[in-house]
Specification:
The longest helix is centred in the first third of the chain and has 15 residues, at 5-19. This protein is mainly beta. Residues 1-25 have low confidence and may be disordered. It has one helix and 13 strands, in the order H-E-E-E-E-E-E-E-E-E-E-E-E-E. It has two domains: 1-28, no CATH class; 32-228, no CATH class. Strands 1, 2, 3, 4, 5, 6, 7, 8, 9, 10, 11, 12 and 13 form a 13-stranded antiparallel β-sheet that branches.
């Protein structure tokens, strides 16, 4: 039996929509075959960052919320390779919004130790190197007026374990090891942190308890990077 023309057209339309990601939606550039497709020069990224933290400030004895939001293409990118003590290279990344709204403190920083391309890497601090060398989140704090700044930086420390990991996708490139020239390389990474995992400010307990924050929901930390090394 031949299919009616109307049915054939409807079927073709459904197939076309499915290939494009569904009705009324556009493809997610962070899931396409090309990493950072809208970046043509180094120090550019396409990102989706949505972090909500519940925090406690022992100095003011108050609770507050902290939010960090970065979305879309940005050239406010630091991306570098750095030799580590094990003879390998660490990948350091810092991201801020392209057109930062006045008063918005949103930034995300992380370091992938021994970066060598696709794989899963723990985001940790090493003893003696200071804090926030694994993951650092800067965001907007909902503190009551007169009780501290309206921005806050928290991250990993060497005295507290962290469950955060960086998952580097297939197709990501290693840092070029060419001292005679600079080469671009592309990296796709998603950071996963369990809900309830804790980040703190620059002070490490028990010397100073400092501000402590926990994820109130699973964060979104997805990065397509075009770096130079």
């Amino acid at each position: 039996m031949n299919m009616p023309i109307r049915s054939m057209l409807s079927t073709a339309l459904l197939v076309s929509l499915a290939a494009c990601g569904g009705s009324g939606s556009s493809r997610d550039p962070l899931q396409g075959a090309t990493i950072a497709p809208n970046c043509s020069a180094a120090n550019c990224a396409e990102v989706e960052v949505s972090v909500d933290l519940e925090c406690w400030d022992p100095v003011w004895e108050t609770d507050f919320d902290m939010t960090t939001r970065i979305s879309g293409r940005t050239t406010e990118v630091d991306c570098w390779g750095e030799e580590n003590g094990a003879g390998g290279l660490d990948l350091g990344v810092g991201i801020a919004p392209e057109n930062r709204v006045k008063g918005d403190a949103s930034e995300a920083w992380f370091r992938i130790r021994g970066y060598a391309g696709p794989g899963t890497y723990p985001l940790v601090n090493l003893d003696g190197e200071g804090d926030h060398h694994g993951l650092k989140i800067i965001g907007n704090a909902s503190r009551p007026e007169g009780q501290g700044n309206q921005d806050q930086a928290v991250g990993t420390t060497s005295c507290r374990s962290s469950g955060c990991v960086a998952k580097v996708a297939e197709g990501s490139e290693p840092i070029p090891n060419d001292p005679m020239a600079t080469h671009e390389f592309r990296v796709r990474v998603e950071i996963e942190c369990p809900a309830g995992d804790e980040l703190t400010d620059m002070y490490c307990p028990p010397d100073d308890p400092g501000v402590s924050c926990s994820f109130s929901a699973k964060p979104t930390l997805r990065f397509d990077l075009l770096c130079a090394g």
